[in-house]
Amino acid sequence: MTKYIIANWKMRMGVAEAKDFMEQLSFEEMPENHQVILCPPFPLLGLVQEHIKAAHLGAQDCSAHDLGPFTGDVSAKLLCEMGCRYVIVGHSERRHAFGEDSATVRAKAHRALDEKMIPIVCIGETKEVKQAGETHAFLRKQLEASLPDQDFILAYEPVWAIGTGEVPSLEDIASIHGALKSVLTHHGKGHTPILYGGSVTAQNVSDILSLDAVSGVLVGSASLDPESFSNIMRG
Ligand code: PGA
């Protein structure tokens, strides 16, 4: 089974750092079933693409619109022309800091699919939802409202685990991924890869990837350092 290892640099990398990163990234000893996807900020897509080697290029977001008068937005069509094969949509930072709802996330996923790119649709519960014991119901609703019509990759990222160093237990990850698979199966999409994201590090990645229910990881902070991310790529 393919295991996706995705770097989400967020708004954290500059030109010099990105050049250094690409020079130092090492694919040595990476298992053959690992598929690496690098998602830099938009202006660094060209630079990363030039040095991409065995990885694929992804974007962190795309517009929900077709080409038109949308100042500051970036179209899926342009991302595809830049060499992107994947686009993250609905990351919790977009949902919470920019007020994106699931209908918008779904529209973005469809724009990516229109260009033959694969959307990586993110969902995840907040700490409040978790403490109220409503995680499963919340995730089901968020997934169903964000669900694209065609094939996609799902990333389960508990909001409380992003950038905090807090990670759910392996049992909890397996059980939530199992529940998400049931929802997907109900919609005829049981084959969808389900990734885990939230405080993944070189130390915990092999345990997380060893779970059958986990088809890969979405990595934020630990993807900024080439040595740490090369270790994560090895699993
Ligand atoms: P983190 O971020 O690895 O820094 O927790 C993950 C993400 O936001 O995708």
In order across it, which strands form the biggest sheet? 1-2-3-4-5-6-7-8
Bound molecules: 2-phosphoglycolic acid
Largest sheet: 8 strands, parallel, barrel
- How many distinct helices? 10
Name the poorly predicted regions. none
Query: Residue share in helices?
Result: 25-40%
Strand content: 15-25%
Given the C-alpha coordinates, what overall shape results?
A: globular
Strands, total number: 8
**Distance separating the two termini:** 14 Å
Overall mean pLDDT: 97
What order do the helices and strands follow?
A: EHEHEHEHHEHHEHEHEH
Main structural class: alpha/beta
Please state the CA-atom Rg, rounded to the nearest Å.
17 Å
Structure in words:
- With 235 residues, the chain is an alpha/beta fold.
- It has helices at residues 15-24, 45-50, 76-81, 92-97, 102-114, 127-131, 135-146, 170-186, 205-209, 226-234, and strands spanning 3-8, 34-39, 56-59, 84-89, 118-123, 153-156, 194-197, 216-219.
- Strand 3, helix 3 and strand 4 (84-89) form a beta-alpha-beta unit.
- The longest helix is centred in the last third of the chain and has 17 residues, at 170-186.
- The model has no long low-confidence stretch (mean pLDDT 97).
- Residues 8, 157, 162-163, 197-200, 218-222 line the site of 2-phosphoglycolic acid (PGA).
What keyword list fits this structure?
235 residues; alpha/beta; eight-stranded parallel barrel; 17% strand; globular; binds 2-phosphoglycolic acid
